[in-house]
Amino acid sequence: MFSLLAPQFLIAGVALLIPLVLHLIQSSRTVRLPFSTIRFLKLAAKRSSRRIKLEHFLLWLLRTLLLAALVLAFAMPMIRTREFRNFLGRAARDIAIVVDASYSMGYKTGGKNVWTEATELAAEIIAGLSEQDRFCLYLARNQVTPVYEQLTGGKERETAGTRLKGHKLGYESSQLAPAVMAAVKTLEQEQRRTEREIHIISDTHALPWERFQKENQGAPAPGAPKTAAAPEPGDRSPPPPAPAGTSANLWDPSLINDRTTCFVTLLGSPAPENATPVDIALEPQLITPDTAPRLTVRLARTGPPQDTTATVFVDDKEVTRRSTLVGDRGELKLMLPPMGNGTHVVRVETPEDSLTADNAFHFLVRARQKLPVLCVGSKEDTFFLRAALAAAVGGVSPIDVKYIQPDRLAEEQLQNFVCIFLCNVLPLPGQDIVSVERYIRTGGLAVIFPGDGAKAADYGVWSCLPGTPNAIAEIPTLERKRLLTWDKPQHPMLVALKEGGAVPALAVKRCLHCSGFNEKAATLISTGAGDPFLITCPFGRGETFLFTVSANRSWSDFPLSPFFLPILHQLVQYAAGAGAFLPSLWTADALPLQEYLPEATRESVLKDPEGNTVSVRSAMVDGQTVLHAEGLTVPGIYTLSSPQDPTLRPALALNMPRAESNLTPIRPEAIAPLLGLKNLVVTTSRDELLRKLDEFRIGKTLGEQLLWLALLLALAESFYANWLLRRRARLADQLNIEASGKIVRPE
Amino acid sequence: MPDKPNEKQAEGIVAFLNAEEMHKLDRIVLLSRYVVEGNLAGAHRSPLKGASSEFSDHKMYGFGDDPKHVDWKVLGRTDRYYVKRYQDETNLRVYIVLDRSNSMNYGSGGVTKYAFACRLAAALAYVVIKARDSVGLFLFSDKIDVEMEPRHSLNHLNNMLKSLQRKGPAATTQVAETLHQIAGSVHKRGLIIVISDLLDNEHEINLALAHFRKRLHDVIVFHVLDPAELELNFNKGYEFEDLETLERVTADPRALAKEYQKVFGEFLEQYRRACEGLKVDYRLVRTDQTSETYVRAYLEERRRLSK
């Protein structure tokens, strides 16, 4: 088999015409020279024309062969002929191996998972290298993980297998393209070697190959698979990691030259099957000890439709199970039994299959006996509020209200409350404002009632308000009668109230005027004529509600209205549902801890499901200590303890993104168009790869030999041309002319 | 000395020889190897009996013979009257036959063959005049262009050289025919000096030289050649144009040189052999030397050989 590693240099073959063209130009551009007689020239030309033609032909042949040898040398012809294996030998080569390390590689076939096959194959490829060969090795995970980042050889060949086996299969999705680009860059560091191989060892999973297609099309690289698998925007999940597909590692096949051959090996089953719980949803949001939560389990399946059972475990005890026919996607609705007060560990499992890593989905359920609410204000200002919140619904009040004076606000742990009512407490000290705003930002809900104690300017220092109050307006007597209108009747907080059907009317004597509304702010209730009555605005992960009237009778008769109590109760219910607690999160490399675990401190110890302590890094941001947990990559229940309470309490439930669980296979023929490489070999088994490698690695480039040949031809041409020029003898010497002009012929 | 004889800055002998060269040439003579017929008493042997001191032979005394030449010793031994006769000595009549064909206008090193031939002629003529011998001139191309009878005065030499200056190389050449013509016009035996590149039919020219020898002339042939004509030592290809026929040929001298030298060597060899057979003094003269030095070297050798 004959091939050219750099056939583009054949274009330089046009240079073969140069000697001929130069000869023709030289012949046509002769200078005229007067000469005494051309008689002897003609005679000599006649006698030596054949010899001259032969000499010219030989010179042309030498020069053309020289140029041809140079052109061929640069084009680097490669002869791969089994018959001449011993004669040709084998060229030294650099190889790069990229092994897919996504959790789908844990798919078992024949008692061995694909990851084990892949690592053994990689070790085998390395062991099969010769002394002059060098290699580098990368694992394709969510981030590129180098095993041998620099080209190496020698003794490392023997230890590479052991070192590779030391890497465990993670719970991440893989990105092959960045890993391949990293491998290509490593190969590019050494330009001397003539032959290169890139080995991509993966399963038949189509997902990691989609990146090649997207990046080939020049589309911006999407984020990590986490992003693709992240729940809907309404769900509160940790922010996805920065996309790995930056401009530095975008797939660019033009960076891979023709001397590089890419071998793709697709191991594992060509038609894999897998079932996994993808996500859950719990209703209602507020779960009390006597509530029977409704659980919706979304299932996904790769392979033909089949009955799939979902089993639910609460605190490691099976509580229910149910089956349904799942095609591509499916959904199961289950009723969980009422749970006691506290946080419960819940797990949904699908039956064991070939890919066990994604069979369980973990989440937490927090059941609350009462909803803790903090009410801040003077006795007069909170009189009606206290009465309304303490009112029992169905015999026992679900709300546990704590009243404090405004000057005691700093002493409270705000994260323990689902909701805070601030009644005529402005102005507050700056430290308290910061504290309240941090509480809202981490998922808390604050309800603010204005009052006579604050001027309009006192609201300006707050950044969590929906708008900027600019005046406290006195309403003329004739205009005090107002009808409340529901501006956002679909808002979760108002849905229940609307069902009442009655149109509330109020007498408003005084109200807060706002201007410069925040763009995310929304007026939920207004008092007619466009005057807002209740305004809301999200702030961080929490929300702020601002009433434009006070909580006592001095501004309006709202506290006396029949809507006062239901609105307040609805606010508390809404706060409990929209609070900071999330049943589950996705695994991540880093997590802002205080945002998801407000109770965590620097002294707290967070442990992963395997019992290892999670690294928590603290940093000062804007004068505040911010905690970040790192390496939350193991799915399961994370526990938190503190020096004050060493009991391990379930704190977080983490699950790996499920995009990787969709094992839709890729056809081997689809790889070539995705990669866009000229020299590509796709195999589907170890034996096939080793056989093709055995055939491929026969022979070597003849570039060096051709360069030597070119040198020899150049020397031959130089000597021959000079010999032709210098071989002329001097006639005067032959004639032996004396000083007197006498010709003395030699005897 | 000007390269071309028709330059105007000097005329006559001074245009060809400077004082130093003339001084060097003063001491040497051009001798004929054979008997010549002069019209004055001189240093050269005459076919006639004369009054020199060199004994020739005896003859029977006859009427009118001067009794003082009777050889008394022979009379005493044989009792017969014999008179002694002596070799006559006369002056040398030299004819310079110079080719002015266009091929003589070629010169690769700045000096054309014609210019060199003129200087050679001037040097030889000067030597002849200084030896009180006579020198004449035939300047020819395809015919005799200038003919000057031999005389032995410096004025004559000057006039002769002015003629050379005035007549530059021109026209084609008919060397053999013209030499025959000249041979027919010179009756008294003398020394014929042919200065030419002899680029004509060598067989015909050899016949013409034989014609001279038949008329008992002593003949010297100076075959004037440019080094480039001998070696063809050009370093690139040219379109060569024949100076006489204006014919052209494109050739690469580097490739042709060897064969050319072979052909040209054969050409020269024909002249050399023919002249050797005719007892003609054939000399190959390259234009890359000074004419005065060459003339001295040649005349020295000729003098040495004539002893």
Short overview:
By secondary structure, chain A is α/β, with parallel strands linked by helices.
3D structure, described in words:
The complex is a heterodimer of chains A (747) and B (307). Chain A has 747 residues and is α/β, with parallel strands linked by helices. Chain A folds into five domains: 2-84 and 702-735, no CATH class; 92-271 and 664-696, Rossmann fold (3-Layer(aba) Sandwich); 274-368, Sandwich (Immunoglobulin-like), CATH 2.60.40; 371-577, Class I glutamine amidotransferase (GATase) domain (Rossmann fold), CATH 3.40.50.880; 585-655. Chain A contains 17 helices and 37 strands. In chain A, the strands form ten sheets. Chain A has an eight-stranded mixed β-sheet, with helices on both faces. In chain A, strands 8-7-4-9-10-37 form a six-stranded mixed β-sheet, with helices on both faces. Chain A has a four-stranded antiparallel β-sheet with strand order 14-13-16-17, with no helix packed on it. Chain A is elongated and about 150 Å long. Chain B is of the alpha/beta class and 307 residues long. Chain B folds into two domains: 12-34 and 91-306, Rossmann fold; 41-90, no CATH class. In chain B, 38% of the residues lie in helices and 26% in strands. Chain B has nine helices and ten strands. Chain B has a six-stranded mixed β-sheet with strand order 5-4-3-6-7-10, sandwiched between helices. In chain B, α6 packs parallel to α8 (253-278). The longest helix of chain B has 26 residues, at 253-278. Chain B is elongated, with a radius of gyration of 23 Å. Chain B starts with 18 loop residues before the first helix and ends with a helix. Mean pLDDT of chain B is 83; it is low at 1-7. Classes of the chains: A alpha/beta (747), B alpha/beta (307). The interface between A and B is large, with 42 and 59 residues. β2 (31-35) of chain A pairs parallel with β8 (238-242) of chain B, so a sheet runs across the interface.
